[in-house]
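Bench notes, afternoon.
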Amino acid sequence: MSADFQGWARSHQACIETSLQTLLPAANIAPERLHEAMRYAVLGGGKRVRPLLAFAAGELSGASEERVTIVAAAVELIHAYSLVHDDLPCMDNDVLRRGKPTCHVEYDEATALLVGDSLQSLAFQLLAEYRLADTPQIQLEMIMRLAQAAGSRGMAGGQAIDLANVGKTLNLPELEFMHIHKTGALIRSAVMLGARCGSSLNDAQLESLDHFAKHIGLAFQVVDDVLDTEATTATLGKTAGKDAEHNKPTYVSILGASRARELAEELRRDAYQALEGFDATAGRLRQVTDFIIQREF
């Protein structure tokens, strides 16, 4: 990974962290315990991959960093809400996230449920509160895209499919369908919302960018599945081996670790190919792609 990219990534990770600290309600504002728990769930952890994708896509479309920062924060709030809810006993029942106790362990289940609800609401408040696009119509489309990515046709639907298939054997297309929704939808929205903050892309370019985002969303999940079997709990910041322990279908359980790694590389090539029509301004997206594929592999 080039020093140039590492510096860019650190700068933008720090930017989104500072913005989230500002945009989240302060812990001393009533209800204090809920706001404290919201900040606990969001701040000080994670690689901020989705914000990095939004910032990279924003560079591609000539977007202002101020606009993209709000979009990146909204997407990250949706992601954090999903993690809080996924970790609940009624879902995946996990006790460790980002190297610290999960929200319901640190606080309680009812608070964790309300944290997720509140983070989701705050995400849409941000998309409505700030001017993020050149026209109101584009901004409404952005709000709709994030709503679809988070709902039953996206992330929540993917989680429902995941829960329904514990202990079952899926084929590769079925697994891909699940993860296009569970993981891929929010990653695609991060890319597309970041791009829509600018104005330099035509419809064909936006379609190519969406193809890129689809491939990188699946690649992210393939890498996650490999890491779950090969990395340590300390490295992951969450409990390693949980998928196998719960008999969940994964790319590793279907393909084996070696073939799963090959699939991640194939998806990287597909993502690169989708960006072929763009000039050097797509360089950051290619670098974030490499970052996703190579993390702790």
